[in-house]
Amino acid sequence: MSALDWTHDPALRSWVESANAAGSDFPIQNLPLGVFRSRTARPTIGVAIGDQILDLRACIEARDLHGPEACRGETLNALMALPAGERRALRLAIAALLRADARRLEWLVPQSAVEMDVPARIGDYTDFYASVHHATRVGRRLRPESPLFPNYKWLPVAYHGRASSIVVSGTPVRRPSGQTHADGAPAPLFGPSRRLDYEAEIGFFLGPGGPLGASIPVGSADAHIVGACLVNDWSARDLQKWEYQPLGPFLAKSFATTISPWVVTMEALLPFRAPLSPRGPDDPAPLPYLAGAPDGGLGITVEVYLETPAMRDRGMPPVRVSTASFLDMYWTPAQMVTHHASNGCNLRPGDLLASGTVSGPAEESAGCLLERASAGEEPIALPSGERRAFLEDGDTVVMRAFCAREGFTRIGFGECRGSVVGP
Ligand code: MN
């Protein structure tokens, strides 16, 4: 991993004033990458700075930025394919354009004036299950005696998700229909899901990757991660319960996955690297191929907010229903990458690996309603007087994330937002 440099200096300011406001998700220390469309409708790569976007294609064409050519693309895939050193050089060049003592550029677009795209052409999407707290709470409902399967503490469990139904924040999500089976019923029924849930996760976009047959050593896996975003792995729990054995989730998950539009780069996350919470004293040490760097975790706080139609009607803001730390995960992003490639499976630029629901040990840190409302047994109380066990039509789920550490500037991920529409 590269070292901290002047772009991480908390004293650094930008000539874009809104980037200097306390609490901005996008100070000059962040510089996340995304793809936006303005009235010209051609997708364009940009960098979020305060409440603005720096148009990288315009910067290149005006020769204010000298390469890489991949900045002129309509997705981030070619940028993601660059070696980590070239991605870091781009960060340095962009920070030099935006720092307070630099010449003001006219290549800014207000974030409020554009629509954001899914930032990369996602070839493959894999969803892990890396929170031991989530896996234990969910497993306890199904197998109280032994909630975790014997493999859990030896390998990062995952399933292959559906890339085609990944949508960007703000896209409405239609309640899925499918087969559900009531305990003891003679036959399943087909109809709209009645147990629609969210899962708050962190997604990692992959960089260079490797060819078929090559593995990725855990010590160099971070160089293959470009950056992170928020992921809402919408889940129909009633469909999932009936279909998941023996091959895992399928239609309960593939109807939609929402991601936040900005890719917070691994360089921006560098000050927030830290060891994951210690494993239990009786837990096995990872096998040598997964024995990673001790600071492979990321200090990301993940929050979930809920807003019902009644709250909206009364002008009430979304209410926070959970807050969790990524440091409570059991596996690091590098371990997920290395395990994924350990059988020779090729990983490609633009692939998305999601962490699995980010949940901590406390009830308030549970990143999905299945845990948070105890599978419907203890609905959560909302300020409107309503209660929620699962999502209802018209509900809006907003996920936010940020990194904060003494001596560094707070950076944020922006929003991952989705509203449920009826079947
Ligand atoms: Mn998930």
Q: Shape from CA axes?
A: globular
Compute the gyration radius: what is it?
21 Å
Distance, first to last CA: 46 Å
Bound molecules: manganese (II) ion
Instruction: Tell me the total number of β-strands.
Output: 26
In short:
The chain has 423 residues and is of the alpha+beta class. 15% of the residues lie in helices and 26% in strands.
Key features of this structure:
423 residues; alpha+beta; five-stranded antiparallel sheet; globular; binds manganese (II) ion
Q: Any overview of this molecule?
A:
There is one protein chain. The chain has 423 residues and is an alpha+beta fold. The chain has 9 helices and 26 strands. The chain has helices spanning 56-61, 77-80, 84-98, 132-142, 237-243, 266-269, 309-313, 333-341, 369-372; strands at 33-37, 44-49, 52-55, 108-110, 115-116, 125-128, 158-160, 166-168, 173-174, 177-180, 189-192, 196-197, 200-206, 225-232, 235-236, 257-259, 264-265, 273-274, 297-298, 301-307, 319-325, 352-354, 380-381, 387-388, 396-403, 411-421. The radius of gyration is 21 Å and the shape is globular. The termini are far apart. The site of manganese (II) ion has 6 residues, from loops.
